[in-house]
Amino acid sequence: MAEKLRVGIVGASGYGGVQLVRLLLDHPRVEIAYLGANQNAGVPFGELYPQLAHRIDRVCEAVELDRIVEACSVVFLATPNGIAYTLAPGLLAGGLRVFDLSADYRFVNLETYQSWYGGDRHDAAVAREAVYGLPELYRERIRTARLVGCPGCYPTASLLAAAPLLKQGLIDPRSLIIDAKSGVSGAGRTLKTGSLFAEADSSVAAYSVARHRHIPEIEQICSDLAGMRVQVQFTPHLIPMARGMLVTLYAQLRDPGLVSEDMLTIYEAFYRQASAVRVLGSGIYPQTKWASGTNTCFIGLEVDQRTERVIVLSALDNLVKGQSGQAIQAMNLTQGWEEMLGLPAVGFYP
Amino acid sequence: MAEKLRVGIVGASGYGGVQLVRLLLDHPRVEIAYLGANQNAGVPFGELYPQLAHRIDRVCEAVELDRIVEACSVVFLATPNGIAYTLAPGLLAGGLRVFDLSADYRFVNLETYQSWYGGDRHDAAVAREAVYGLPELYRERIRTARLVGCPGCYPTASLLAAAPLLKQGLIDPRSLIIDAKSGVSGAGRTLKTGSLFAEADSSVAAYSVARHRHIPEIEQICSDLAGMRVQVQFTPHLIPMARGMLVTLYAQLRDPGLVSEDMLTIYEAFYRQASAVRVLGSGIYPQTKWASGTNTCFIGLEVDQRTERVIVLSALDNLVKGQSGQAIQAMNLTQGWEEMLGLPAVGFYP
Amino acid sequence: MAEKLRVGIVGASGYGGVQLVRLLLDHPRVEIAYLGANQNAGVPFGELYPQLAHRIDRVCEAVELDRIVEACSVVFLATPNGIAYTLAPGLLAGGLRVFDLSADYRFVNLETYQSWYGGDRHDAAVAREAVYGLPELYRERIRTARLVGCPGCYPTASLLAAAPLLKQGLIDPRSLIIDAKSGVSGAGRTLKTGSLFAEADSSVAAYSVARHRHIPEIEQICSDLAGMRVQVQFTPHLIPMARGMLVTLYAQLRDPGLVSEDMLTIYEAFYRQASAVRVLGSGIYPQTKWASGTNTCFIGLEVDQRTERVIVLSALDNLVKGQSGQAIQAMNLTQGWEEMLGLPAVGFYP
Amino acid sequence: MAEKLRVGIVGASGYGGVQLVRLLLDHPRVEIAYLGANQNAGVPFGELYPQLAHRIDRVCEAVELDRIVEACSVVFLATPNGIAYTLAPGLLAGGLRVFDLSADYRFVNLETYQSWYGGDRHDAAVAREAVYGLPELYRERIRTARLVGCPGCYPTASLLAAAPLLKQGLIDPRSLIIDAKSGVSGAGRTLKTGSLFAEADSSVAAYSVARHRHIPEIEQICSDLAGMRVQVQFTPHLIPMARGMLVTLYAQLRDPGLVSEDMLTIYEAFYRQASAVRVLGSGIYPQTKWASGTNTCFIGLEVDQRTERVIVLSALDNLVKGQSGQAIQAMNLTQGWEEMLGLPAVGFYP
């Protein structure tokens, strides 16, 4: 058996970090060689997450470039937005492959990034080389990438729902409405009043209506797929559940003669090679729970002939296919491995 | 002090029934004179709901027309669809005022009813006299009604969100999309696999996409408001919470120059007399929890000038303003009382 | 009608504060004359809790003794432990009646307080005059108190379950085991990782096993009731629900001949005058949801003749009967009003 | 590679069945050769659980002895109590190894079974050969068993918490109190009002106080461990979460000089060979979420020197270590495989 790939995680103590640890512990071809967490430097990871103490005895370390370069061949950056772009240039220079889970390397245009996320970017050359890490759309480019900007839960669920429509020119690109429903873990382990159990439980609400910062990212990729400028209406909602995401997408059909079965055939063909996407049968709509603890995105749809719209539903685990699993899927591709290697495809129910 | 109004409840053992009991116990001008529940005839109500045993000692009775007519001046029918139309003609003939919480008396056209709900209706004359029981839209007609078909949670939340737009002709009536999120109690106390805790918890899913039977009801009232045929896209979702409903409405503006503040002013004016509706300030979107245990509907909105759409959010308690509280509000109007009499306006938080 | 009593709330922005506002808004004999919240001084209360904006237009103020004394006749201190004892002496000197919701005035022995809560107490004379604010046990003393130390959720649920047993000498006082289950709002609106939705949802755990600081408080009152030193085993658990508390109490019977029906009779007699306590029928055990949004404590029990133990179950809303409602109940007594005046006795279900 | 073991599942459509399917699909040495489900005979399993449709194309079959014997070498009976004992004798006669997840083969004394579960047992010879399927206590006997009566969630969590205490004679065997907290899926997929989301959400309650039918089973094994008659107080509670179980055990120590660290050492030694049990460090108490989706039982404890009691906390997934995973663990032992083969040891968090 070949030697195992030495991987590191920066930002190991947050939810992204602990997903990566959990998944990589079960991955047959890698070993965890470094855990970076500035605020918990010196603390055994098993103290932060006692349920993993018997599986990993590594201690969190300060985030130091030389140490990461020495310890790892591959590194995952599970840090807040604005950190990755201070680290990636050095890591690449040190010969590492970098998978960034933040927004830092998802934008072709750094001015767009800066206008939504702030910061002062001087890494244009590095950013230009970054590949958008959605394997279902950019598989070939990811295979050879050194730097991957992995999309999060909202763009992943939205783009997987929209891609066949846009790529095939089936809809009016100005009619896209995405009504998204997210579990509370999407906000991370950061302490915010709105993330408290007592606040979020037994309640639903929208937030950042018409101005969520995933809008430019979704529009960038949609436009790339459609070969023309696409505008989306995107409304995120907070749902009283820890994990999971559902996107309900509405779009006006160009050809009102298309029926649900036709559309399902188009989706099945589009995702035939995509082992992380499952298109459901006619009349079946996904439950987010089906995707929980898996790297699978479930898609169902309906064509409403009365209104000449298609309604697409996509469900995934916001912390796996919508975050850490997606990054590992991209890593698998760069190593020439099967893209679902080490990633769970089915979850527990109920 | 005047004698109290004697009210009865048919279908007292379900969720609609127990809401009515709970609310009417606190109502200063009524007394509960009859509880009908065929399956629990002879059982003290306090055995079905022990937490109310110290407040009500009435026993459930079989549903018999003569007994109801003798006992009550007003009756609420909290029965499954298809029961009310077998009872209402007799109750009206007996001189009672009838508030039906089912779908039976919400349709102008009984053929529409029959095509969605089945049944064999021969009560056209009675149905013609029924008034649609949404006080914010039909207050004056309700005041003198003998038979009120009270709308449920989906139509109430949808219509309160849409009414100012349609009445004032502010939107393209073909562009209405309603993405609705409902708590699980909306399915009632009936035993269904999908309503089990283990199934519904930690999960979100859509259902009845493009074919929910509240569509014709919503379209009927929207068309009445707009004075022209309106078509809506309506997608209901099940949310892991017991109570509460949120509607997210999307529509294309006719005048793209309108901004959020203008729209809020229009909504505030529209609902100035509506003590059960609260229009929120700019940038505030309602949480369903705010409405829990109240007869209040909270409305927030945003105009997206980029997409030329308005997004309206309305939140209510599906079992109060979306069901039993609404019926009591209508009853208050028929008695000439203040419409919120005995109805809670603020809830507990968190 | 007499003039309304002017009441103030210090610590208005937390969960205790917003419960008091909610309940006092519906109280027929009081008006809210002052809201103190240092961190939100100058902020309208309706900005903190938009769902209440249409009912209260008062602005939060800095906590200043003179202002409180000028504005109020009665004040509720809903502040963290360690604040009340810096305010109460001055408030009493200013002629106000003080209801403290923190632990500061619940201890006869200030050394016990200091060993569990820290701080440096020099208010022994004031503390000596404080009355323990559990109306079911100390009703007469509360009526004339100027300073009431109101017990929180754990002691209230525990003591109401235990009191008849101890007062009547029915159990071995060394055998008391209290297994308590609390909703997450018990931790307040403070930001803690363990209170995040993603952490607390879908999980149960114990905490502070054998060393929770409510132990000395519970033992102090138990010993007072029993007329001898009582030791309790107390284990709190965090339950994935926002509100509610259940205590499961185990104790060894002195007289193994006693059966459940006898014991229920004893409890009913003990709580005959207690309008906030409901003893349930034989074989009925309380659900916390029954108590949600009410000032009622539901009690059920079982005698196990096989093991010669009694198991008592008490359920209440941790933020009403376990906090703010209790304080208002005490205030009602000091004013000579019916003790449940303005307090809800029944909640919504489900 | 050796041929795969052909296993069958009777009762495949319930929660136990779907756990077995989920786990066995990932097991490297078995293939699912038969799915029995009388009520769904003829229905593809992927229609019952669409999220698994892409992984299993087997159709549910009627439960017929000959068919099972022909198709399988090993069979799991995930049926309601009272079914297994009608099937097991024939299955054993056909040469199969049988793992029963119901209560039918957990009792040494069939009269005890009949007095709690009813039925008319004539399979005493078969029942005598059954082994109690808790590997941590009966590992050697399970290795050679043909018929295993696998314990469910309450006995498993209770016995794993109690075993070291009883085996080593550390406690007064009359002092055992077990306060158990279960997720709602413990009631299965059967339709009951109390299992509805709207009823079980946001609430906690005890049930079957002093008379739950797991009491005789727990006492039977406790007595076997202690070598003397042991009596337990057992109180189950329903918790608003889908999966998970926590047991809080209280017992009076024989030697009050023992401290927490001593006790932890004893537990660690007792479970040294038990790969499915993890004893936590000092001061750490398990959260049920840690165990979710795993076959691991986490145990924490505290000795209270003040009260001379030990408090033990054990957490597991009621549907894995408390049901299906346990049965697979026993099967692994009978095949001479590592006992955790194919079973997940760590879960997702949060």
From TrEMBL, chains A, B, C, D:
Q: Does the keyword Cytoplasm belong to this entry?
A: yes
Give the reactions, separated by semicolons, that this protein catalyses: N-acetyl-L-glutamate 5-semialdehyde + phosphate + NADP(+) = N-acetyl-L-glutamyl 5-phosphate + NADPH + H(+)
Q: Which GO terms describe its molecular function?
A: N-acetyl-gamma-glutamyl-phosphate reductase activity
Q: Which UniProt keywords apply?
A: Amino-acid biosynthesis, Arginine biosynthesis, Cytoplasm, NADP, Oxidoreductase
Q: In which pathway does it act?
A: Amino-acid biosynthesis; L-arginine biosynthesis; N(2)-acetyl-L-ornithine from L-glutamate: step 3/4
Q: Which SMART domains match?
A: Semialdhyde_dh
Q: Which domain of life is it from?
A: Bacteria
Known InterPro entries for this protein?
AGPR, AGPR_AS, AGPR_dimerisation_dom, AGPR_type-1, NAD(P)-bd_dom_sf, Semialdehyde_DH_NAD-bd
**Active site positions:** 153
Task: List the EC numbers from the record.
Answer: 1.2.1.38
Has keyword Transferase?
A: no
Subcellular location, in the record's words?
Cytoplasm
Give the enzyme class.
oxidoreductase
The residue ranges crossing the membrane are: none
Q: Which residue numbers delimit the Semialdehyde dehydrogenase NAD-binding domain?
A: 6-145
- Its primary localisation, in coarse terms, equals cytoplasm
Q: What does the UniProt function comment say about this protein?
A: Catalyzes the NADPH-dependent reduction of N-acetyl-5-glutamyl phosphate to yield N-acetyl-L-glutamate 5-semialdehyde.
What family classification does the UniProt entry report for this protein? Belongs to the NAGSA dehydrogenase family. Type 1 subfamily.
What's the protein here called? N-acetyl-gamma-glutamyl-phosphate reductase
Q: Native species of this protein?
A: Gloeobacter morelensis MG652769
